[in-house]
Design brief:
10 helices; 15 strands; homodimer; globular; alpha/beta
Chain lengths: 341, 341
């Protein structure tokens, strides 16, 4: 008896529909279906439950030099997801395991097991993608290893209500620092001063921003955790204390435009005069210490010293809009798109 | 019998005649005489034999923010000198001792003994003022403690024929690095490649400078020792290797103008993508380790691994012109003005 044609399994995904040459909008993305292959040897099939979107991903769509490589139309959007293993051809990962990895923006991902991390299935996937994922680890290593804050020091965080910023500031508080956040709206500043527990928060759009920035840093700045570059970095450079440290984590101000802000003034003079260290880092360089960081952050979460926040969108179709919201400064905490159980 | 009026002892000095608001010229200085007081308790009188002039002093004449404070017309030029003690009211320093300190541009200096360092009288004062003085110490701590070069790495030095640069490059060679110098004339580049022993040297005024800079750094740059800021810093930023270090030692490009160059492009983006550390320092922060550095450098000098160079001017009247030559890029090594024995 001849076999009939097998019906390929198809599943939802989001592709890049158009390479942006200006501000990002929903039309740059398209919801499509793709065939889901059977897992090969060493592979597993994952039902993705949630993905996260980070501002840093914008650089990868620019077509210019970035550590993320060049973009291509029609390709499924890259990104990190968490989900449950539905089928496994790999040792060490079983059906039902919760895994985290670079699934992309898709409902079903077939991946090499070696590219996945098995995570605690009892925790909300949003935790794996936020505070225990790249963003939380970035905050942890950037603040502690690059910034090296001491108790009593003043720490300033830009994009402070963002996925990285709100964690970095809370870790600095846990270390006994005075923490000042800079964010893009009064609403975010209220959250930072209130629930999130910063000592002060400033709206970077305030007409008196520079004066407010000076007032909020009477003892100058020991550690500036820079998520933005641009004007806020420029203001911070003029307020650094002797032996201050600037943690260069990202350059949000340059992600969404073909014409990035010019560099801030006073480099290298201000670095010399105040003996300031300015250091760029990528979290991937700390991969061998991720477990240590996750254990420490879980401890802080359980003790209530660290309260990670996320904003939730429902369904893959919402992912493009979530990315636009993120870059437009309309989100607080980690951006999570939930795809279902 | 009534005493006659005592004749005050007078001695030569150089004062700031005019605060410069553009390029420095000899007319900004005036040779004058001043009264030399008797040393008070704890003081000594020093016959200054030589002074040194550093490009960094230019910042102190600008009237704007600098770690050296604001300038004043009619005041004796500040600066470091070496000389012999002629009279002492201080314990621990005797007549005939060789001392080094902030004598200013004058032939006779009366100073608190605590502001002087007793040095080896058997050595040429030019050594105390150059390689064993602030410039040599700046090269030593900037390169080794801030730059942390490893054997086999590529080290680039700007203002490489200068007082700091030519020492920094030689220390890097002694550490087993490949050393590329950037200087302001073909003559300087020949000296750097020849007698001074760099692996390569580039004239920053070459029309093909950027291409030559790339060719001279095929493995990119691990340590960039920046004495200039401006365009050379800009070129270096684009050539840094992963985990590269930029030692921000000075900003010569900004010393002699009221309109400093804009900051180089790509900050903070290039620091993030290449995980580069950019660090400003002042040598004074290493004061507790000066003896260690001087002993090490004397050892290298005796072994022939470090050959400090200086350019000599004769007489205080030549000091202003020497400063102008220095800022005009017409000097190699440490600028020394000899005042006599």
């Amino acid at each position: 008896m001849a076999e009939g044609p097998t019906t390929a399994r198809v599943s939802d995904c989001v592709v890049l529909a158009k390479i942006p040459d200006g501000p990002l909008s929903a039309e740059h993305f398209a919801l499509q279906t793709e065939e889901v292959p059977e897992p090969g040897p060493g592979q597993v099939s994952v039902r993705v439950q949630a993905i996260t979107i980070g501002a840093g991903q914008r650089a990868g769509l620019q077509g210019s030099a970035s550590y993320a490589g060049a973009p291509e139309v029609g390709v499924v959007m890259a990104g990190t997801g968490a989900g449950v293993v539905e089928a496994s051809n790999a040792e060490g990962i079983g059906v039902g395991d919760t895994v985290v990895g670079s699934t992309g923006w898709r409902r079903n991902a077939v991946m090499d097991a070696s590219d996945l991390r098995v995570a605690d299935g009892a925790l909300d996937p949003a935790l794996h993608l936020g505070v225990l994922g790249t963003n939380g680890l970035t905050a942890y290593f950037g603040l502690l290893d690059v910034g090296k804050p001491e108790p009593g020091e003043t720490v300033v965080v830009s994009a402070a209500a963002g996925s990285v910023g709100h964690i970095a500031g809370q870790i600095a508080k846990a270390r006994g620092c005075r923490v000042v956040g800079v964010a893009g709206s009064d609403h975010k500043c209220e959250l930072l001063r209130g629930e999130i527990g910063f000592d002060a928060a400033l709206n970077r759009h305030s007409p008196d921003f520079r004066a407010e920035f000076r007032s909020a840093t009477p003892d100058r700045i020991n550690v500036y955790f820079d998520n933005t570059g641009g004007e806020i970095l420029g203001s911070a450079l003029f307020r650094m204390a002797t032996f201050g440290r600037i943690v260069c984590c990202g350059a949000v101000s340059a992600y969404d435009t073909a014409n990035p802000d010019p560099s801030p003034r006073g480099i290298p003079g201000l670095l010399v005069n105040n003996q300031v260290r300015m250091q760029g880092f990528l979290v991937f360089s700390y991969a061998s210490r991720y477990d240590e960081a996750r254990a420490q952050m879980l401890e802080w979460i359980e003790a209530g010293a660290l309260v990670p926040r996320h904003i939730t969108y429902e369904g893959l179709g919402a992912a493009g809009g979530a990315f636009v919201d993120l870059l437009g400064g309309r989100t607080v905490g980690t951006t999570i798109v939930r795809l279902g159980d």
